[in-house]
Structures are given as structure tokens and as C-alpha cells.
Amino acid sequence: xxxxxxxxxxxxxxxxxxxxxxxxxxxxxxxxxxxxxxxxxxxxxxxxxxxxxxxxxxxxxxxxxxxxxxx
Length: 71
What we know:
3 strands
């Protein structure tokens, strides 16, 4: 089983905020994850929806894993 965690897609949506090299790296990484990962973890519902819409990952492959600190 192959899995990855995606925190956000800022480099794809805001190219002006990152260098061309950073954009290219993230674009390849996200495309590879969408094509090869069985499970994609997102850190919020918003990111999960964004991954589904932007990367065309089926929603059933995306799971939300909220980052948290255990008290």
C-alpha cells in the first residue's frame, strides 16, 4: 500500500509565491501521488476537497487526518 500526506496545494494555486523550481517539484510530486497512491491523507476537509478537485483524486481515496497535539 502506498500513501502520502498533503498539507496544502499552495504551490499549485499561487505560483507567484514560490520559485519555478519549487513549483515544478511540487507539481510532479502531486501528480505522482495522485497517480500512484492508494491513500492520500489531507490535514483538513478543505484540503481534501481541493485535492479531489485539483488533482482529480477520487474522494474515497482521500482521508482527513487532523494534525493535533495530545494533551
